[in-house]
Design a protein that fits this description.
This protein has 624 residues and is mainly β. Helix content is 8%, strand content 17%.
Length: 624
């Protein structure tokens, strides 16, 4: 037996177990196109392959732990296992198993730990069957897999640790409705950074699953559109502008109209205009970024709520000036770019409505111009800890974060923190510090205001004078008075978020946020069940964003001049019931609103009928 390897020796035990199980059910074992006995395998008689094929095991009803630890390669055609109900632990611990062909599992419901611990396995053919319900730890520890195994996920209800420790990328669940599925540790310790989900709800569930690595983010899969010459106006480098209709996911070719471009095409349309189609780009990929010098103004004035720009580590533009200036985009994802050669970031996010900005993880050390880089942004945290500001002159940090709503700034080192803290017009509420190890931002906890935080003595006269402006919770009673009016309560204050302990019985919010100027105002947790009068509520407000999503005001009847001259650009009434709304006169007079959503068609009609509404502002039912 010395002529046999250790692997073939281990094969003996596995074949013996398999032979007993199969032949006991009137089946036949085929090895190397023959039907040898175990003795023939051991003594070297006949032709033996280092693996197992089965031609007939149709009567087997259970394959639990059938080949655990004892096989190199496996192939069972789709016609087999016609009566088997479980393959639990079938190949558990087969550390020498490298290749698995197609496995026919028409009635199998449970594949728990089927390949757990198969550390050498590189590929798995399709698991053919539609009855799978349990896949706990099915591929746990299979850290040599080069691609995701293919099998029907539709009926699976438990996937605990299913791909724990796997290294293939991406993780693709685009055809799986995960509603009600147990997802505990499903991708724990996986190294992939990209995952695909069927819907946003599925992506949210997967992103919230326990054990998910921070670097792995699930998103709804979108088929990329490869742009062609006809999708661009212009004829020369730096003057191409995208005019195509696909705005979900566009791949920009390296060559446009015979020109290998180095200065990026524009996706912006040039300026704000009402409900403009160009400039609503959600995702861009550079097909070959190796020659790119500049992405200047690539997506300025963009209207999409989210934006992702991809190019990989070879995307090394020198300039990203004005990249997303004046965009309405709430989340900007640049993680898949590189700032290695970046020198010019002037006005990169200037006056954008971005609440989340994700920069590349790789370090950058060539920056020389950061003027107005985050000016007017609405992020909570400005994280530039991967950028070295050593080469940036103090003069080129002017207005770096002027008018930003951020309260936390994170830098690479103390020298960078000192430089940015000294930048002109930095908000007094924002301080830059070297980024602590394992830093996690904690949103401000609600501050329940007390009597001393208010001037006034009667309903309608109470004005908040407190110093905590991050998240204020209005009490039910102030100075012994049970509130029935919030009129003028935050007049001229830069409060960022407001809710109430109990707003029942409050009927007026007139002038409540008149002339407020925090930049971003979050009212998503403000429930106003009895308010009827909301006239002038946001009159003259300087906030660029007012988050109404989640706010309830079901009895409101009066919205007269509510947003007159307000600087907010997008208004979303999709969670506010306007059934009882009667008065909308001059509701949007001279306002900056250019985009609006309503709960249903009737509510949209009421808003669109408001007198003196900007002609180009059209409220529509918010897409689901």
């Amino acid at each position: 037996m010395s002529i046999f390897s250790e692997q073939v020796t281990r094969l003996q035990t596995g074949l013996n177990n398999a032979k007993i199980a199969i032949e006991g059910k009137d089946g036949v074992v085929v090895v190397g196109n023959t039907t040898p006995t175990i003795e023939e395998i051991v003594t070297g008689i006949g032709t033996v392959s280092a693996g197992i094929e089965s031609s007939l095991i149709s009567n087997v009803t259970s394959c639990q732990s059938m080949y655990a630890g004892n096989v190199l390669w496996v192939n069972f055609p789709a016609t087999e296992f016609t009566n088997s109900l479980t393959t639990e632990g079938m190949f558990n611990g087969c550390t020498s198993l490298v290749t698995v062909g197609e496995l026919g599992l028409p009635l199998v419901t449970d594949i728990t730990s089927m390949f757990q611990g198969c550390t050498s396995i590189t590929s798995v053919g399709e698991l053919v069957g539609t009855g799978l319900t349990v896949a706990d730890y099915a591929f746990k520890g299979c850290d040599s897999l080069t691609s995701q195994p293919v099998f029907d996920l539709q009926g699976i209800t438990s996937a605990i640790g299913m791909f724990e420790g796997c290294t293939f990328s991406p993780v693709d669940f685009r055809n799986w409705d995960t509603t009600g599925v147990t997802l505990t540790d499903i991708v724990k310790d996986c190294t992939a950074t990209v995952g695909y989900a069927k819907t946003q709800a599925d992506a949210d569930r997967l992103n919230a699953s326990t054990g998910k690595p921070a670097g792995l983010v699930f998103e709804v899969f979108v088929e990329p559109y490869y742009a062609v010459d006809a999708d661009f106006s212009g004829t020369s480098n730096g003057y191409f502008e995208y005019i195509g209709l696909n705005t979900d996911y566009v791949v920009i070719p390296k060559v446009i109209k015979g020109v290998t471009w180095t200065y990026s095409p524009k996706f912006d349309g040039g300026s704000y205009s009402y409900n403009k189609e160009p400039g609503k780009i959600k995702r861009i990929k550079l097909e070959d970024p190796s020659s790119v010098v500049s992405l200047q103004a690539l997506c300025s004035f963009n209207y999409a709520e989210t934006l992702k720009i991809e190019g990989g580590a070879t995307t090394n533009p020198v300039s990203m000036a004005y990249l997303c200036q004046n965009s309405l985009t709430k989340k900007i994802d640049l993680k898949d770019l590189s700032f290695a050669n970046l020198t010019n970031a002037q006005s990169m996010f200037d006056d954008s409505l971005a609440e989340v900005i994700e920069l590349p993880i790789a370090p950058s050390s060539n920056l020389t111009n950061a003027t107005k880089m985050f000016n007017g942004t609405l992020v909570d945290v400005i994280d530039v800890s991967n950028i070295d500001f050593a080469n940036v002159p103090a003069a080129n940090t002017n207005y770096f974060c002027c008018n930003s709503s951020a309260t936390v700034g994170l830098t690479k080192n103390q020298a960078d923190a000192d430089k940015l803290n000294a930048s002109s017009y930095k908000p007094s509420t924002l301080t830059f510090i070297p980024k602590p190890e394992n830093y996690v931002y904690t949103p401000p906890a609600p501050y329940i205001a007390v009597d001393a935080d208010f001037s006034g003595t009667t309903n309608g006269s109470f004005v908040y004078t407190g110093t905590n402006l991050d998240f204020v919770k209005i009490p039910r009673v102030i100075k012994g008075v049970t509130l029935t009016s919030y009129a003028g309560m935050f007049y001229g204050r830069d409060v960022k978020k407001v809710s109430a302990v109990d707003a029942s019985g409050v009927t007026s919010t007139r002038d409540m946020f008149k002339s407020a100027y925090a930049g971003r105002l979050d009212l998503s947790e403000l429930y106003l069940p009895d308010v009827t009068d909301a006239g002038n509520m946001f009159l003259f407000t300087k906030n660029k964003v007012i988050n109404l999503c989640g706010m309830l005001m079901p009895r409101v009847t009066n919205f007269v001049t509510t947003f007159q001259t307000a600087t907010v650009k997008v208004l979303d009434f999709s969670t506010i019931d306007l059934t009882n709304l009667v008065s909308t006169d001059s509701m949007f007079l001279s306002s900056s609103v250019i985009k609006g959503y309503a709960r249903n068609a009737d509510d949209a009609a009421k808003l669109n009928a408001s007198s003196s509404k900007p002609a180009g502002l059209i409220f529509v039912v918010k897409p689901t």
